[in-house]
Specification:
The chain is of the alpha/beta class. The chain is 35% helix and 27% strand. A 9-stranded mixed β-sheet has the order 5-4-1-8-9-10-11-12-13, sandwiched between helices. β12 and β13 form a beta hairpin.
């Protein structure tokens, strides 16, 4: 089957929290005599781009150009982060460094191919006003050629209500569509964005919903409420094995997940927001956005670990299912 890449050459600004995902690999043969814990003989270490930077990797894998806008520390982890960006061919002009703010690092201790522990190094309080103003300047400098802006929030403090609204307003003034992958703290701060993509758990927590069962009626009610309270144009909810739901006020679509051998769901949300944002920037219909994003999220779940989407696989399947 033949296909063409409709996303090649698009420019995408990703603003939010980034991190270094570190992995220490080893084997376990005994329990420590000092405490009832396994002793891991380390055989290798690896560092990867994480958080909003993983979304950027997904964007780059689709042959679009990602531009990160974020804050990292003036520390060894920050040096590692910039090196990984440069190795991945991503520009770093939108990245601020601060002495008083450590780079977020999540270190996973892997023994016998299982995660035994995760060590988090992070600071989660909101960035100060001076840093916020400088970040806004960097952000504005990236907008002239932007086709879409993604807000990637991990509750690590780069995004806070004041700067969120400033940045959304800058995009509105320029007619640039905005998409959001929200977390709990700033869930209600993204007024007026083009597409808002929580998962079911984040939606329930953000709206304080009592219901646990996914129903079409409940999804539509949540969409109506978010449009009414926050002026959100499209609500896009990922529903794990139940698929995805997208509502734009005129039409709604509940797209079931494709049957797959699920190996690892890590990073699926990053892939979904990547594809949804690219499709939105091209003015695609809500149904088509939901279908292609749903397909992409399922494909990365067939891979081990957090990996970017493979465009060849995505477009081949999209052609097969008559999405493209």
């Amino acid at each position: 089957m033949s296909w063409t890449n409709p996303f090649a050459g698009l420019n995408v600004v990703i603003v939010g929290d980034v991190m270094v995902d570190a992995y220490w690999y080893g084997s376990v043969h005994r329990i420590s005599p000092e405490a009832p814990v396994p002793v891991v003989d380390i055989t290798g270490k690896e560092s990867r781009l994480g958080g909003a930077a993983n979304v950027a990797l997904n964007i780059r894998s689709m042959e679009a150009a990602p531009f990160l806008c974020t804050v990292i520390g003036e520390d060894e982890a920050g040096d590692t982060f910039l090196r990984l960006c440069q190795e991945s061919g991503m520009p770093t002009g939108g990245i601020l460094r601060r002495k008083n703010r450590p780079t977020t690092v999540k270190t996973r201790i892997m023994g016998n191919q299982q995660q035994l522990m995760r060590l988090d190094e992070e600071q989660t309080q909101p960035i100060d006003e001076a840093t916020s103003l400088e970040l806004e300047e960097r952000f504005a400098s990236l907008l002239p050629n932007a086709d879409v802006v993604i807000f990637e929030d991990y509750d690590k403090g780069v995004l806070h209500p004041t700067i969120i609204q400033r940045l959304v307003n800058l995009c509105k003034e320029r007619g640039i569509p905005t998409t959001v992958d929200p977390k709990k703290v700033n869930f209600n701060a993204f007024h007026g964005v083009s597409l808002f993509k929580p998962n079911w758990k984040e939606l329930r927590e953000g709206l304080h919903l009592a219901q646990t069962e996914v129903t079409l009626e409940g999804l539509k009610m949540a969409a109506d409420r978010l449009r009414r309270e926050q002026g959100i144009e499209r609500l896009f909810i990922t529903l794990s094995e139940k698929g995805v739901f997208l509502d734009d006020g005129k039409e709604s679509h509940l797209i079931p997940a494709h049957i797959r051998k699920i190996i690892d769901v890590s990073g699926a949300g990053d892939t979904v927001i990547c594809i949804a944002s690219l499709a939105l920037s091209l003015g695609w219909s809500s149904e088509k956005i939901a279908q292609l994003s749903n397909l992409a999220g399922g494909l990365v779940c067939e891979e081990v670990g957090v990996v970017p989407i493979q465009k060849e696989k995505l477009f081949q399947e999209a052609t097969q299912f008559n999405i493209l």
